[in-house]
Amino acid sequence: MNISALQKERAKYQPKLPKSLRGAVKLTEGAKTESVADQKEIAELFPNTYGMPLITFKEGDKDSSKKPVNVGVILSGGQAPGGHNVISGIFDGIKKINPKSKLYGFLGGPGGLVDHKYMELTAEIIDEYRNTGGFDIIGSGRTKLEEEWQFDKGLEMARDLNLNALVIIGGDDSNTNACVLAEYYLQKKAGLQVIGCPKTIDGDLKNEMIEASFGFDTATKVYSELIGNIQRDANSAKKYWHFIKLMGRSASHISLECALKTQPNITLISEEVAEKQQTLGDIVDYMTCIVAQRAEDGKNFGVALIPEGLIEFIPEMKILISELNDLLAEGTETEKEFKMLKKIHRINWVASQLTKESAKVLKSLPQGIATQLTLDRDPHGNVQVSLIDTEKLLGEMVTEKLAAMKKAEKFAGKFSTQYHFFGYEGRCAAPSNFDADYCYSLGYTTSVLVSEGKTGYMASVRNLTAPAEKWIAGGVPITMMMNMERRQGHMKPVIQKALVELDGAPFKYFVSKRGEWALETSYVYPGPIQYFGPTEVCDQPTETLKFERA
Question: Whose C-alpha in 39, 349, 363, 402 is 20 to 30 A from the C-alpha of 168?
């Protein structure tokens, strides 16, 4: 492996651990838990793992000798900074339990378990990846573990390797799968534990017991540096409006956090759009008004943040997309007919198959956006929102609105746009000190849950705005986070997604300031992630977490 000077220095960094994990560990169990909703249905589906107690770790009296444990680990879904430190924490934790313990990595995500592709992770390998970004130590994948034949294939592999436990590092869907696996193996009396670990840079896997999903801190710091750089350029050149789309399909946590860090002129929050039932026209009017007001003050420049999933939260667009998903669902007769048409005729044909209202919306969109809405669906049958240039859609519509205003002599300014989409830029960044510490602690917590024979739990590290030594480690039953949702026409148990709370402290503060940020040039330039220096610069959690835990 080629190693940069920064990586050499980061290899020396020893992540901080909660005090409860530094020596002997004592487990305390709380009251029995219940699911966040649909208690009867979840309890019936998970009779063996429902109602388990919360677990908290405390400092123990002395280490007791324990048998070695063999653990298999899977990285599931998209990359997030800190995954390598979770694996490092698991490795160090199980080696502390017993030096003869072994860690195996399944290659390419959950598919590696099913296809029996793995490697043993030795100290030599682990040491190359400490405090580094990416998931390249074993790779990741999006195979879903949903079928019993997959569970049984995994069990074959576990028996071959004499595994005590399987650890799934992933987001809400991956951890839902972990819960299903834990239930299945208990039902079969297979003797294989399953532990989950909360990962997603979108930030939508969180609750009272999971204060943050790992990677969110690093990714938002990377994006905020880029936004700050663009703001500085905008304030220097004074001739462009920059429309920036940010990752976040199901929730707008990234956009909100970056707004709190950088103070741009416009930030759209998908959850607010849905709550207020704002139309596409309402959003364009809001943005146009700010552009015009700034122009009156001689400021023909600005920055707007747009969440990736915004288009699915706009009421008329949500209906249109739902109709398109049904019309163009893979394997349907209408999908086959659509693909047989020449591209030039497709939009008109699609419009003819929709309701009158949705056809009108589709035809009102720029040709390029309308075409993007008809592209191939994702594996779940949904439109691929990351392929839709929402930032360009809004930019073009604001341009049209301003042109009409100029014709009516209601706008005398200038409006030129630049477009950006920040996604991949943050997914594999070297983890911030916060994420390096948090992820290592999550991994170490996982090793303790394994050694104590627990299954169906997710590793939990809380009190994250305090210094790391005061963090509270433990485990939360995955069933506690679950509810029933309609997926592909069927009601299924899934971990409830955490959306931006409009009555929450972070959003309320943002609302109190956005009018000022819109018209004044109040930009903040965070700069790059700081790895070395005073703790108030290097070790701070996100603004969102500070407001939530204040």
Answer: 39
